[in-house]
Predict the structure of Peptidoglycan hydrolase-like protein with peptidoglycan-binding domain.
Amino acid sequence: MRAWFPRAAVIAVVVLALLASGATSVWLWMTAEPPHSLAAPRIATSAPVSYQDYTDRRGVTLRVDSQPDSRLESGTGGRVTSFPCAPGEVVESGSALAGIDGRPLVALATAVPLWRELGIGDRGEDVTALQKELVRLGYTLTADGTVGRRTLAAAATMFERAGETAPDSERVDAGRIVWIPAASVTIGECRTSVGETQQAGDVLATTSGATTRVSVIEPIADLVDGERTLTVDSVAVPIEGAGIDDPAALAALAATPSLQRDDAATATGRGDPAGEAASGGAIRGTIELSTPVRVGVVPPSAVYAIEGAAGCVATGDAALRVRIVGSQLGQTFVLFDAEQRPDTVLLSSARRPACT
């Protein structure tokens, strides 16, 4: 009897311990949080919007148009009274190139060289060419191919600005216009000097071959609105539309290694054998906004009701129209109206308002 009692006490203690540990396990199992790896995933219904500068940078292929060396001929004879010529000097269309018998000879870049005296009512391609160049120079008239009072007045003003003391407002003297092949040309060699006598048709100077235009071969659609810059070999110049013909910008581009290689290729036989405007190999460059725009960065799933580059994002109870301007690594870049800069956008299609 005495031996049985201690043994029974031990058994009772063990049983109580087992019961207590089981109850504790059950309580822990019922109250403990499951580990994150086993928890049900939470579906995000919104996402934050971040903002960054965007330049809409695009790669482009360029065409380079150039003119070969040319001769600048006087259309009238007489004694040279002024000739501010120097190799390397740039001559602009509409400016005085020289003076013969005290009257200016005006350099003018027309699509068709003027070959006759023009008066009221004259018509032809040479008239249209003169009018278009006068318009480009800033004179007010219509390039309709017929000489009118505005055409004569513009031509007279051009001569007056070049130094003519008594410009003729009844005719355009083609002999006093020296044709140049581009809006600006660079003097290569001066062939006369002050005091010498010139005959009509004599060469006053020669020009060095020059780049006349750089243009984008295949214009890119869906560009973000804004002024743009073209960059070639780290040289950046303004570009309007699909091309550049500004003399200063062309001079800067002409000094780049890419255009110099193109000029060398043209000179070795890839140019136009007729001596007209020629183009060498394709040049690569980039265009981008001169001033970056601020774009919102959102998940692709935040944009809905997409039609082309247009769509909507939702924030709260409002649908905001956006323009999609790009995407990268699971991010979509959108343009909001200036006054609309939401902090978050909705991802759940069930909560989105209609895009109107």
The first strand starts at residue 46 and ends at 48. Residues 4-31 form the longest helix (28 residues). Residues 128 and 345 are 57 Å apart (CA to CA).
